[in-house]
Amino acid sequence: MIGIKLFFHCLVSCLCVVPLFYAANASGNDKIAVLISSSESRFDEALAGFKEYLSNQNIQAAYEIHHVSGDVFTTEQTVQHIRKSKPRMIFTLGSLGTEAVMKRITDIPVVACLVMRSDILKKSTNATGVGLEFPLETQFSWLKTILPKAKTIGVLYNPAENTKRIEDAKRIARRLGLRLEAVEVFTPQDIPSALATLARSADAIWGLADSLIMSPHMAKHILLFAFRNKIPLIGLSETWVKAGALYSLERDYSDLGSQCGSMALQIWNNAHPRSIAPATPRKIFYSINLKTAEHIKLLLPDEIVQKARTVY
Amino acid sequence: MKNTKLSCIMITAFVIMIASFQNSRAESGSPAAPVSASEEALLFQEIPSVYSASKYEQKVTEAPSSVSIVTASDIKKYGYRTLADVLRGVRSFFVTYDRNYNYVGVRGFGRPADYNNRILLLIDGHRTNDNLYDMAFIGTDGILDVDIIDRVEIIRGPGSSLYGSNALFAVVNVITKRGRDLKGMEVSGEAARYDTYKGRLSYGDRYSNGIEALFSGTVYDSKGPSLFFPEYNSPTTNHGLTSGTDYDRFHSLFVKTSYRDFTLQAASLSRIKGIPTGSFETDFNNPDNRTRDQRAYLDLQYDHAITAKNQVSARLFYDYYKYTGDYITSGVTNKDRGLGEWWGGEIKLSSRSFNNHRLIVGTEYTFNNHLDQRNHDVYPYGVYLDDQRRSEFWAAYIQDEITLIRKKLVFNAGLRYDNYNTFTDTLNPRLALIYTPWGKSIFKALFGTAFRAPSPFELYYQSPTNSPNADLKPERISTYEVVYEQYLGDHCRATAAGFFYKIYNLIDQMETAPGSGITIFRNLGQIQSHGFEIELENKWANGIEGRISYAFQKTVDLATDGILSNSPEHMVKANLILPLWRNKLFAGVEQQYTSLRKTIDNSYTSEFFITNITLFAQRMAKGLELSASVYNVFNTRYSDPVSADFMPVTAVQQDQRAYRVKLTYAF
After folding, report:
1. Which of B105, B166, B333, B578 could form a disulfide with B120 if both were Cys (CB 3.0 to 4.6 A apart)?
2. What pTM was computed for the model?
């Protein structure tokens, strides 16, 4: 009886391992090139999650890790090097590395992580991955949960960067019974008057990832505006909440790495990247700032406070 | 020669503007391209907290003037009771009180009984100086309870290039709270020395349909102190003692509603004040000597963003002011009446359509429907004045703020034309260069002129103690100022400012003939002043915040070459807020030193040093705030110079140590 069981296990294992062995031989190596755009600790968390997932799946890949620390020139050189070294797969963390790879390399599968939006991956023939941004439906549903009285949601956006996003957001907001008041901003100098417009009508300000508006340079201005006008600001991340935004939806960066790992496993098993749809984060947490809530005289239900991952 | 200099400055400004417009055309292009390569940095960047910065990050650095801001939090923690208290605590400002009205002095210039007509007081942008006396009400006669002030912006220097008449020394813009600031009902009660009681009931909220509303009503009653006037120390005048004559009563109402681009505001106040000083040769120690001020306004404002770079603001307003004075002289009641009613509108366009330019153009019109003054004796009946007039004026203005040299240099140029049907027209420019060579150092060089149209009171008022003078011309001021602001760390700001100003055709009150007892307003010679101010303000991470300032000013009457009356040469102010327990209990300590001031008889009031302390508690129980204040802690005896109307009194005694306890509950 034990012998039959052992034989069955060996057979199943062989059936699993043989294709992997075949696939590895078919591409000529088991190397995964990793391109890390930033020295920010979340990038390391995501990479650890990625490696752990593949390791748990018995993928014994050799990792060739490249740090570019936000430097464009180093990134270009590194991408050239990766192209020549012909890895079996490329794992990019961050937009800088991802965009450089997508531009220069079209014949090696790419799994991208920690890019703001997964939409950019759809343009590529050899890339897939997980974006940082939550689906709009998810964002607005959470907004309704935390701010049930908010009906008009204000947002600033740069049309050169976010027109499509705003069109989609307006449609989804309407479906959820919200009104999105979007104010165009073309230069940072437009922001004060745009905010003044929102102050007259918005019940909350939605922090849309927009490099012109939610920049480090403008962050303090926007936060102060929201603070003074007692309008809750939905931050982009925990750092925004710590600084004065009311709440933000949070990702589990280790899980983002695991999520990318599952995509990498499919590619390792010969799936084509185009057959794997880019995804959004599957785990959601949130952080809230009770000092801000008190300042704007917003009473948050205990349940919301208790379930928050971080409370400031 | 003066005109040539002014022309040169204006031509230079014009050339810079034209050149920069051409430059901006070359620079203007497509909108900013996305910088997606670092998008995720938006999530991970460290962002400085807003809590500690809320006071200092008000964009005051870009203002073409030296600006101070007093917040609602300051008002609570320092125990400010009126706008006069607020201004008293601000660098280079001083306030005198003649036991009826408060008068603001700025940078060494404070004429007793000028009714604050050399500063412009705005409430949410609405001009509140009345049309008869041009008076800015800042004491208990102020139309707004300080509890519903969100912040006060004090903009020093001439502001006529944008605001027209009265903005000679400063523009004080009071920003009121909104419904969202209350989110419910708030009731407040206070008791103070001299049988003083005040109650306020306010309600505000922002509703889901977008309407926002705030209602607030206040009642106040004070019996006032007993006072001693040595000038009346004779058996016929109760040995200089007066009791029950310094009473002060008012009730006020404020309503503000807004919906989308529209804001409607209404305010009213009625105040009765006893006159304990025997001014205007009235019977000393007679409680029937009193004034009544009734003030109201209605203001509809529209603000709309036409495009991302172009905004329009419009305003329609109606204002009302009624003054009644009962003056008893030798048993004869003299009734003094003033009725002012005016309405108008303003439209303003601001544009950033040209790169590096922020352009403002606007026009306003005011029609004075009633400028009525009447003065008569009740018995035996005799009319001294029954003057009814109407007048109107319109104005147009333009201001451009040009950013140059990689945003390190800002050139601000403004010009306003005012046309009065009562006197000739006037043109007032303001030019400012603001240079930021390094991130935390700001240099400002400012020049501006301002004017004040003579008020109907100054022109036409006639009574047993005053003669009219219809030939008065507007007074003008030219001001030169340099300001250096240095930010030290995140929340520390040091300011140094030097100024020089000259006033032409100063309108001032004098006796028609020495010893006649009859006063008249005349265009006197020129006043010249120079001085400097330094201020250091800081807010530490542990919640301690404070500021200390010193102001020196030497203001000279060029006709006599003597120091101007009621002009202190030195002023020192120190303010400190100490958090005593968590974020719940605070001590606000305020100290003010004012050097001696000349009175109208060329004697001097003594210098004085005042300390006020307030303990303020919040969050001890839900919605509850409690404060206890002691004003003039060391019981300093001091007096403020007053006008010739008060003769034989030349300086009026001020309050000694006083206390106040205040309880506010929000639900």
Report:
1. B166
2. 0.84
